[in-house]
Specification:
single chain; mainly alpha; Serine Threonine Protein Phosphatase 5, Tetratricopeptide repeat; about 750 residues; disordered N terminus
């Protein structure tokens, strides 16, 4: 068979056809005949650019709309008649039948208003055949929504492309949304942003505001705060309420512009005047508390009430608050409760934000009335009371939940008794009772908590078999923490299952499991070593807020066994862990500052870090603080800190006290007491650093037992205590001599 060569490329047509097999559309993924062909499904044409221009903002509308509105206005004013409108509509119908695209478009929109989508689709199709861009857009919308025609997203895209090529703004915006959502088209933020820019350049405030948002967040463009501010200002000056409110935020925070509370207030006022109810509520709060302006309770109440009256749910609670405290309106608890109940029944998040305890106390009775005996509502009130720091309220909700037999309440109150939270004294036996009640009802969290008590032997005799059974029941009920806890228990006994459990917990987002798994992967502990995956796992957990993950990374960099030792990276990791509230990280940072590892040596910063660790309850930091005080000669204070660390659970603090008695530092030297304290510390887990618990040390102490003379007595040839024995000896010698003389005679 003859092969025909392509004159431009030199390749055969057969080769060219073979190369183009499997070519797909970059826009929707549909298989095409060739790379140069347009897409039959979404209408994309290779090399086609986005519309370079849109119809300018504010261009004259369809003339039929203008005349229609004029006649309606005359009828309302009494200078026109209904028959005028009927006659006009008849004339438009005639024009439409004659093929007038503007008339067909106008009638199509009227048909939609009259709930006749099939007729609207027919009219739009007629207008679209004449090239009417709005009719093309309207057909696209109808295909997207399934109004009057069969729903077909790809047909919608094809119509949107036709209309957008003519500059139809609504069609361009529809394509923006499709590219942004990745709906039937491949998601492409850059292309979506290019389309938004076309509309923004044409003066559309909504597009200018969207450009501001995209520059602010870096969506489809590089982040640029300056450009975000420019576009936001353009939209705000055009009267876009959302842009006005956002511009107020820029001035309020001083972001990209000089901070100016008064200017922020001005833009909020404009946004509120243009119907932004969120801005009205923000203004209300500012006038209530005098933020950026003088206090104005009356205006504060008016703005919040207006927003609430127009259905803005987030304002309901604020109106109730004003009635509760008589701010800008007469104090009225009944109306306050009415608005609060309305807020609680809504989807608003505001009433569930944490309050001050004294505010929460006033709102509590109404919330309890709202909750009644409903389990979910009681749980919601409990979370709110806890977030508000209103402990007595939390206890009351939980006690009611326990009385009603709700397992979640039994478990939560059990946690409070175990940890001594919500103003309760620690009571492990009561916690155990409540956990058992909830566990019997199948509460997954209670099964896990009960398993931990048996695993640790806390309040019950240690029973690992019971702990394992409880964990397995909790896992079956979907408790992820139990997978991690059981993995820890089985780590030595059943490595394969333990690894499987920790992998499962990590895959479900348990940050502790992710941290542990990442650490083990880097070290190759009980599993094949995978440093890259382990590092990713630790960093992911750290970025999601698990401070201990950064601390573990710091340990790896500091040890230099599995990663190249790097004190600078270790210090940075410990800093991030400390920022997340990890007390141990603060303690290690103190050592780094003290030794100048990965940072300049700075004793002041070392002490500050140590104090932060102590504030977070780190017993080792307390002990280390005592050591520094002792080294500085402040023995009495050092002894106090060693005692504090011991009471907090640090056995080494007790051992350091033993050393002070052994050496006589700030206390009378007492080897026997030192040894007794050291033995107590070692029994509690301290390391015998100086061998005080060695039996030979006790023997040496006995042999080196000092006599009972005072130092003053020992300095004299005969101490006070030695006079009487000396006299007795002299008398005995004289008696013996006398007897001897007598016997000779």
């Amino acid at each position: 068979m003859e092969v025909i060569a392509d004159k431009k490329t030199g390749s055969s047509v057969g080769e060219k056809m073979q190369a183009e097999e499997g070519v797909v559309c970059a826009e929707c993924g549909y298989k095409k005949k060739s790379a140069a062909a347009g897409c039959a499904r979404c209408g994309a044409v290779p090399g086609a650019v986005v519309p370079q221009k849109a119809l300018s903002y504010g261009e004259p509308p369809n003339p039929h709309d203008v005349e229609f509105e004029r006649i309606k206005a005359e009828i309302r004013e009494g200078t026109g008649f209904d028959s005028d409108l009927e006659n006009y509509m008849t004339s438009v119908e005639c024009k439409a039948e004659e093929g007038d695209a503007l008339a067909q478009e106008f009638l199509g929109r009227r048909a939609l208003d009259e709930k006749d989508p099939k007729r609207a689709a027919w009219l739009f199709r007629c207008a679209a055949e004449s090239g009417n861009s709005f009719a093309e857009y309207a057909l696209g919308w109808m295909h997207e929504s399934g109004e009057g025609v069969e729903k077909d997203l790809y047909a919608a895209v094809r119509f949107y492309r036709k209309a957008s090529a003519k500059g139809e703004p609504q069609a361009i915006w529809a394509l923006v949304e499709m590219y942004s959502r990745g709906e039937c088209l491949v998601r492409d933020d850059a292309k979506a942003t290019s389309l938004v820019r076309v509309l923004a350049d044409a003066g559309y405030p909504i597009a200018q505001y969207e450009m501001s948002r995209r520059y602010y967040h870096g969506i489809g463009v590089n982040k640029d705060l300056g450009q975000a501010l420019v576009w936001c200002s353009l939209a705000a000056n055009a009267g876009h309420a959302g842009a006005e409110s956002t511009l107020a935020g820029f001035y309020d925070a001083g972001e990209g512009v000089r901070q100016d509370k008064a200017e922020a207030l001005k833009w909020l006022e404009r946004a509120s005047a243009h119907g932004d109810l969120r801005a009205s509520l923000d203004l209300s709060i500012r006038y209530c508390h005098g933020i950026g302006t003088a206090k104005n309770p009356g205006r504060a109440y008016y703005l919040a009430y207006e927003a609430a009256d127009r259905g803005y749910e987030e304002a309901y609670w604020q109106v109730g608050y004003y009635f509760r405290y008589g701010i800008g309106v007469k104090q009225d608890d009944g109306r306050a409760d009415k608005w609060l109940l309305k807020a609680l029944e809504s989807n608003a998040s505001t009433p569930w934000n944490g309050n001050k305890p004294e505010t929460a106390e006033k709102e509590f009775p109404c919330r309890m009335k709202w909750a009644g005996e409903d389990s979910d509502r009681l749980r919601k009130v409990c979370v709110w009371a806890k977030a508000s720091g209103y402990d007595s309220g939390s206890r009351e909700v939980l006690q009611k939940g326990v009385a009603l037999g709700y397992p979640w309440a039994q478990n939560t109150l059990g946690v409070a008794f175990q940890e001594g939270g919500l103003g309760l004294k620690k009571d492990i036996s009561e916690a155990l009772r409540l956990y058992k009640l909830a566990a019997d009802a199948g509460e997954a969290s209670a099964l896990c908590n009960l398993g931990m008590l048996y695993q640790e032997g806390n309040g019950v005799e240690r029973d690992l078999a019971m702990a394992e059974r409880l964990y397995r029941r909790a896992i079956a009920a979907g408790n992820v923490a139990s997978e991690r806890n059981l993995a820890w228990q089985l780590w030595e006994k059943s490595t394969k299952e333990a690894v499987s459990l920790i992998e499962s917990a990590a895959s479900k987002g348990d940050l502790s499991a992710m941290s542990w798994l990442g650490f083990c992967l880097v070290r190759g502990d009980k599993m094949p070593k995978d440093v890259d995956r382990g590092m990713r796992m630790l960093e992911s957990a750290g970025l999601q807020g698990k401070a201990e993950a950064w601390s573990l990374l710091g340990d790896l960099y500091s040890a230099g066994e599995h990663l190249q030792r790097d004190y600078n990276l270790a210090f940075n990791c410990y800093e991030r862990a400390a920022q997340g509230g990890c007390s141990e990280a603060y303690r290690i940072i103190a050592e780094y500052y003290a030794q100048g590892l990965g940072c300049p040596q700075d004793n002041r910063k070392a002490m500050e870090a140590l104090q932060k660790s102590i504030e977070l309850g780190n017993d080792l930091a307390m002990c280390r603080f005592g050591e520094l005080l002792r080294d500085n000669g402040e023995h009495e204070k050092a002894l106090e800190w060693f005692e504090k660390s011991w009471k907090a659970g640090c056995a080494n603090g007790r051992y350091q006290m033993a050393l002070m008695y052994w050496r006589g530092e700030g206390v009378p030297q007492d080897a026997h007491k030192a040894i007794r304290i050291a033995e107590e510390a070692v029994a509690a887990g301290a390391e015998d650093l100086e061998g005080l618990c060695d039996p030979s040390v006790e023997s040496d102490a006995q042999a080196a037992k000092p006599d009972r003379r005072t130092d003053e007595d020992a300095s004299r040839p005969y101490g006070t205590a030695g006079i009487l024995p000396a006299l007795v000896v002299i008398i005995l010698v004289l008696v013996v001599l006398c007897k001897l003389v007598a016997s000779i005679n």
